Amino acid sequence: MSVKDAVANRVQSLCAQRKIKPNELANRSGVTPSTVYSLLDERRRDVSIITIKKLCDGLEISLGEFFTAPEFDALEQEIF
């Protein structure tokens, strides 16, 4: 799993836990819905840490809480 996929999975999981849709997360976070949908799109590669921080603010969690999830512990090395 790539870092981008792990981030997308985490966002989807947090939305499901809170029973909110990506549009609502975007509104709470002060980002456009297209930004959230782009992050969730598996064809897109990059995601900004600033965007993740804004989403965390909208979810009322810290970056530490966001990244404390099993999907991040199992990531493979990016540099070969």
Count of helical stretches: 6
Approximate strand percentage: under 5%
How many DSSP-defined strands?
0
User: What is the CATH fold-level name?
Assistant: 434 Repressor (Amino-terminal Domain)
- What global shape is seen? globular
Report the CATH C-level class. Answer: Mainly Alpha
Radius of gyration: 12 Å
**Low-confidence spans: pLDDT under 50, at least 5 residues?**
none
Largest sheet: none
Order of helices and strands: HHHHHH
Per CATH, which architecture?
Orthogonal Bundle
Helix content: 55-70%
Oligomer: single chain
Coarse structural class? mainly alpha
CATH-assigned homologous superfamily: lambda repressor-like DNA-binding domains
The end-to-end distance, rounded to whole angstroms, is 15 Å
- Can you tell me the number of structural domains? 1
Integer average pLDDT: 92
Written description of the protein model:
By secondary structure, the protein is an all-alpha fold. It has a single domain, classed as lambda repressor-like DNA-binding domains (434 Repressor (Amino-terminal Domain)). It has six helices and no strands. The longest helix has 16 residues, at 3-18. The two termini are 15 Å apart.
